[in-house]
Amino acid sequence: MTTNKTEGNEQIVNIAAICHRGTREFIYPAARNQLVFRLSAARADIAACRLLYWKRSDPYPESVRFQPLDLVYRDALHDDFRTTVRFNEPVHYIKYYFELTGKDGEVAYVTDYGLSSEKPDAGFFEFLYANEEDVLRTPDWAKGIVFYQIFPDRFCHGGSGKRDQTLVPWDSIPTYDNYFGGDLRGILEKLDYLSELGVDCIYFTPVFKAEFNHKYATTDYYSIDPGFGAMDDFVALVEKAHAHGIKIILDGVFNHVGRSFPPFADLLENGEKSPYKDWFFYSSLPLTMSPLNYECVGDYAYMPKLRTSHPDVRRMILDVMLYWIEKTGIDGWRLDVADEVERATWQVIRTELKRRHPGALLLGETWTDAYDLAGSGDQMDSAMNYLFRSALIDWVAKGNILPTTFDSRINRMLSKYSDELNSGLYNPIDSHDTARFLYEAGGDKNKLRMAAAFQMTFCGAPAVYYGDVVGMSGANDPDCRGGMLWDASKQDQSLLAWYKKLIRLRHDLPALRFGTFRSILCDDGDNVYGFIRQYQGETVYVVFNLGSAPTAVTLPLLDGTGRYGSLLDSTELVAESVDAVGNFYNSDITDYNAQTILSMGAWSVQIIIKE
């Protein structure tokens, strides 16, 4: 923390990098009696960060208490410090500031006035009250679980659907217009398969009556699409899934509808006389497609955008969401293009829905930074984490970046959000809206195996897209939506066994589901990357060699000397103590005390624990 003199006052050179505000990004209640504090600084600029806090009604400075902040995440530019303070009562009227210690031992202080070398007597931050609905909560059941996404028309034909369309053969090339005939009964018949795989929650793309094979142009929110079956089929599916310990969430498409949605059809027919004229956005009446004079999602004329700020539209959305939870027992909702809907709409709906069903999951779709959608906890519980997918595509599938850049992106991603949110982020490597990972990897299944291993050992909730586990590939939509490969002779059984092993390890090791994350290896020369997950005294080491040649990896350890073993094969390791740890990655923030030599093949991963 190099300092200079400015008008007689010492200041930190990287003052612009130091950031804390008394807002929800930097301070929030994890419970009514717990506050989480966060401060960001320049990478490796701060040796220590300490919180000083006291109750407003108590005398200052006599009543000041102290608590260190831990350096939790580090990207290429920033260090992210965090701590949780527990109180004996609901938190209220807490004043606080921060004490920073530089690498050379000098001290500076951060208040709402900025940074100073003098101990402050004013300008303190203040947290007022931890109200019940301000507590940041993700449903416990959704933390670290394994999702499985199903596109119903393409998963399995069970004979329950009644279709007006001609079905194509199951192995046909998917198009925007063809129908394969997958249905709810088919999915129900495969629940044993999903249970054996280790799936915790199924996310279905839309099942409501709708236009097109993707069903994102809803015409009736209260009915199962006839092509998929009937309400009884869906209820039976939910009941059997729950008997297997599998949760169910449905895709809620409330930002837009199909042109045959009755209120929009009424507006098409009656124009100014329609009672639904305020449910939609348009520049003139009557509505026309050429030129297009009404707003649509993605500018697709067949999916007009709802005016979700309208009170009647909001009531309809809430009613639909409650209807399916209460009638069928589903466990939550994935909300399509949730970031295109008014923030206030989700706030209103969340408040009422959570009052009646606090354990229901609200998972929002977004393709960018998810903070606005899920970070403050007043809209979504979780979000689709496409930032995660993008980083894995660039490092594993494409080889466009090296481990140091990958590590920076992963840590930057984690530092955007609370650890509560990070524990439940939906982490896909592909989906119905993207090319499959295997396609992005040029068909290289070793790369898919590495991506799956990272998914299953990383923070958050890994999301598996149907067919990936048996080696399905496909370019971007619609090619990624092929018929599920059920012929065992055509499935990659080795890949399937790999997924099962990884998912079983995730279930068996609490550190992989709930643990903290810290990168400990980052070697651009050999393309080696490693990290640890820690939870309640359990440390799991995960090491990747994405190089094209075998290599010997010096693995730093936190658990001391002794015997270590691999959970993926029979490898046994003996750890030696070390005195000099300065050459290890993140050695200034990690308490290494031993090391071992790990022989790794090309394109391989090891998961190590102390025996």
Number of helices: 14
Oligomer: single chain
Whole-Å distance between the termini?
40 Å
Spatial shape? globular
Q: How would you portray this structure in words?
A:
A hairpin with a 3-residue loop joins strand 6 (65-74) and strand 7 (78-86). Helix content is 23%, strand content 29%. With 611 residues, it is α+β, with helices and mostly antiparallel strands. The strands form five sheets. Strands 3, 4, 5, 6, 7, 8, 9, 10 and 11 form a nine-stranded antiparallel beta sheet that branches. It is globular.
Key words describing this protein structure:
611 residues; alpha+beta; Immunoglobulin-like; TIM Barrel; Oligo-1,6-glucosidase, domain 2; nine-stranded antiparallel β-sheet; eight-stranded parallel β-sheet; 29% strand; globular; disordered N terminus
